Amino acid sequence: MLIDLHVHSTYSDGTKSVDEILNIMKGKNIRLFSITDHDNLKAQKEAINLAMKNGLNYIPGVEISCKFSGGTMDILGYNIDCDMEDLNEFLNKLVEHRNKRNVLIIRKLNELGLDINMEEVINESGGTVIGRPHISRALLRKGYVKSIQDAFEMYIGKGKIAYVSKNKHEPEEVIFHIKKAGGIAVLAHPLSLNLEYGSLERKVGELVDAGLQGIEVFYKAYSDEEQEKLLAIAKKFHLLVTGGSDYHGDNKPDIEPGTEIQEEFLKDFLEELSLQRLLSQS
To answer: How far apart are CA 271 and CA 52, in angstroms?
Structure first.
């Protein structure tokens, strides 16, 4: 079954609008998808309405960064109540900090002699939620770097000279807010934790104790061998299995939307969402 449960729009660090994403999903005959923008739900109502009008299967989603030393830990929330006040307040605080962080990054770049300003960065974002990819695009447009990747490696990536750390919450708190909003909490791209297999398994066990319900086994960049190891972890902890491309449009041009997953691995997740009807259509 061709699905994609990990997609970013212009409401975070993707370059495609919600409407463009829906057209892509429809054109590729992707059977189920979710826009999972970072730390905000701004795409959701538009996506839900457009999906209904076009007869597409859509799940509301979000991706939230967590405190974790060493690697990167993100938790995906699926099928959340987008009107839940507590979750929206929690996310709004993250966006407020993101905005302050952008100002500090631009200030550091200015101190290094790079002439960019917030207006230019806002233009790159289309006026939506702003992040480092938009700063990198402004640097690229002005000729300070040769690619978006260059901007991260030279200036704004973790540990680089213009980097400012992001405000993050403990994974237990993130999972709590997702579940309180009626959602399903799933560990995104688990190998980004940069842990060897045994340590990763133990960390997943800790997250399960905190309420984690699923794991993104079929992340598009992972090899068959890596997916098999993650499937073993999912089986050990009775976790729901998901997958996605982490599509960002032109910000990650080597990644195309859509991830092929065998029905047997998606069955429990679809049943949790009352979407069993999709199983007989593939």
So the answer is: 20
For domain 100-156, the question of CATH label 1.10.150.650 is answered with: yes
What residue segments make up the domains of the chain, in order of their start? 2-90+167-280, 100-156
Check: CB of residue 259 under 8 Å from CB of residue 25. no
Architecture of domain 2-90+167-280 in this structure? Alpha-Beta Barrel (3.20)
7's enclosing H/E stretch is strand 2-7
Over its length of 282 residues, how does the chain's per-residue pLDDT go in tens digits? Answer: 999 999 999 999 899 999 999 999 999 999 999 999 999 999 999 999 999 999 999 999 999 999 998 899 999 999 999 999 999 999 999 989 989 999 999 999 999 999 999 999 998 887 677 889 999 999 999 999 999 999 999 999 989 999 999 889 999 999 999 999 999 999 999 999 999 999 999 999 999 999 999 999 999 999 999 999 999 999 999 999 999 999 999 888 899 999 999 999 999 999 999 887 888 654
- Nearest Cα residue to 170 out of 212, 201, 114: 212
